[in-house]
Amino acid sequence: MPPGPDNSADATKSGRNQGNGGTMDTALIEMRGLTKYFGGFCAVRDVSFSVARGEVVGFLGPNGAGKSTTMKMLAGFMTPSSGSASIEGHDVLRDGLAARRALGYLPEGAPAYGEMSVEAFLEFVARIRRVGPDAVRRALALTSLDSVRLQPIETLSKGFKRRVGLAQALLHDPATLVMDEPTDGLDPNQKFEVRALIRAMAPRKAILISTHLLEEVEAICTRAVVIARGVIVADCTPAELAARHPSGRLDDVFRALTEAEAA
Ligand SMILES: Nc1ncnc2c1ncn2[C@@H]1O[C@H](COP(=O)(O)OP(=O)(O)OP(=O)(O)O)[C@@H](O)[C@H]1O
Ligand SMILES: [Mg+2]
Questions:
Q1: N or C: which end of the chain has fewer CB within 10 A?
Q2: pLDDT at position 112 over 50
Q3: How many domains, the chain?
């Protein structure tokens, strides 16, 4: 079962980030040889890594590298061609329902039912997730959506729509979160808020985020996994990654790793 309600809103305001709080242990996300072919094209090849409670893993890679495809396989949205993955010990294929119950997933683009109001949509997800109205209020507050809660989702700006996606991912307070570009389309203030929220939640959760923002990796990630053309080319701390280039800059390392792979 997911842990009980948290006080992340308060923790977020204080900008708390005190590491793993002694809880970094069990791998809540595990991938073993995850592979996906689209016809003859291999989009994800033999990907294996895990994410433990207390970790925020940044999943980096150029456009088309295979980040979203990997995440869709974790979320049970796409069937792997081979390999396996589990969420909190539940195999995503053999025990898919339990795996999806355990997971909070923010898909790319965050699709939602446009004609529903923010609140109605979250209440709908809450019924599916079997959580009560408190969870909806908490998710609205965590994602700063209170002011638009009665507005149809299709009339929201891009950043607000993204936050609705974030709210549904957090609704059941899952211990495992997979978020595909969670700060994509957010203004600088909202990026700051969402990063603070992720930091505040981190000690109690295993979090995998994809991002193109290297400063985000430095700001919130305890580990960085780089994928290029479907293959993992680095898995280490952001500091270790940065140290791989004489400049000590992540963008230089990223370019060297992913261009070398593409050559
Ligand atoms: N349903 C599909 N059918 C065919 N090819 C696909 C499908 N989904 C993804 N691909 C291909 O798989 C590769 C990986 O795509 P993916 O969306 O995982 O990349 P990504 O790393 O998330 O990129 P981005 O940074 O642009 O979001 C791409 O070449 C993409 O065109
Ligand atoms: Mg993607």
A1: C
A2: yes
A3: 1
Q: Which two tokens stand for residue 156?
A: 């929201």
Q: Taking CA 196 as the corner, what is the angle to CA 191 and CA 202, rounded to the nearest 5 degrees?
A: 125
Find the farthest-apart pair of alpha carbons in the chain and give their distance in angstroms, rounded: 53
CATH of the domain at 84: 3.40.50.300
Does residue 226's CB lie within 6 angstroms of at least one atom of ligand 1? no
Q: How confident is the model at residue 185 (pLDDT cuts 50, 70, 90)?
A: confident
Tell me which DSSP letter residue 47 carries: E
Ligand 1 atom 1 nearest Cα: 38
Residue 135 in contact with ligand 1 by CB distance below 6 A = no
CA of 180 from ligand 2 middle (Å) equals: 7
Residue 196 domain flag: yes
Instruction: Give the mean model confidence (pLDDT) for residues 151-180.
Output: 95
Query: Is any ligand 1 atom within 6 A of the Cβ of residue 53?
Result: no
What spacing in Å lies between the alpha carbon of 62 and ligand 2's midpoint?
Answer: 9
- Token output for 207: 């979090």
